[in-house]
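Quick one, tokens below:
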């Protein structure tokens, strides 16, 4: 059976959990506590030299990294239901939306990126303020895209986990997801998709609050 190496609060791993669940693909979960440095253990680095989660051991000798590459592999390996429906134009927009979050917004919140800023040293409010600005600016563009009629059906897999408020102050601006509290229900651009039972099942790994 495939093994997903992740951490319940990792938004990148969360994307993959959502995709796995939408595909109905059984998987074993292996948790690496990011705050305790589990992602930098020699064992984990032998799976992903980047020291980032997620990594998917496919169970047949391959280890895949990078959440969107893993989602694409899942889509090719388990085509039904497809993650990217619609026309080529719609699919390109969905990819652009996902990449805006995964490549342009997300990276600044990585522990190792923030640790480098703190080591400069920069004061905590400068670090947090900069990260919040990158997130707010990026999410505002995503909301504008969504409001202009882009088809975003599978995008909640990237959008929903983008909730820095789970451990940082609420962002300024109209970002209901980022204001969510740990106990709130998932909601996002497409309530129908987000209420999909398979989507909700991987909202958060309940019972792991002690890892916060
Ligand atoms: N581009 C990567 C990003 C992965 C990533 O940033 N993972 C974070 C958790 S969401 C991580 O492992 N951080 C650990 C660290 O910064 O030390 C992907 O999409 O898989």
């Amino acid at each position: 059976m495939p093994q997903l190496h992740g951490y319940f609060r990792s938004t990148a791993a969360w994307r993959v959990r959502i995709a796995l669940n939408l595909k109905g693909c059984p998987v074993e979960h292996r948790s690496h506590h990011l705050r305790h440095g589990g992602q930098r253990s020699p064992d984990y680095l032998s799976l992903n030299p980047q020291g980032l989660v997620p990594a998917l051991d496919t169970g047949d000798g391959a280890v895949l990294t990078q959440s969107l590459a893993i989602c694409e592999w899942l889509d090719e390996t388990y085509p039904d239901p497809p993650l990217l429906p619609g026309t080529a134009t719609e699919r390109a927009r969905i990819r652009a939306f996902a990449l805006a979050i995964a490549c342009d917004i997300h990276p600044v919140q990585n522990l190792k990126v923030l640790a480098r800023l703190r080591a400069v040293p920069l004061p905590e409010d400068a670090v947090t303020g900069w990260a919040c600005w990158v997130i707010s600016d990026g999410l505002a563009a995503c909301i504008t895209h969504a409001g202009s009629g882009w088809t975003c059906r599978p995008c909640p897999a990237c959008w929903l986990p983008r909730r820095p408020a789970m451990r940082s102050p609420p962002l300024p601006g109209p970002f209901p997801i980022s204001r969510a509290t740990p106990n709130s229900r998932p909601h996002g651009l497409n309530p129908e998709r987000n209420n999909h039972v398979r989507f909700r099942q991987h909202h958060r790994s309940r019972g792991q609050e002690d890892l916060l």
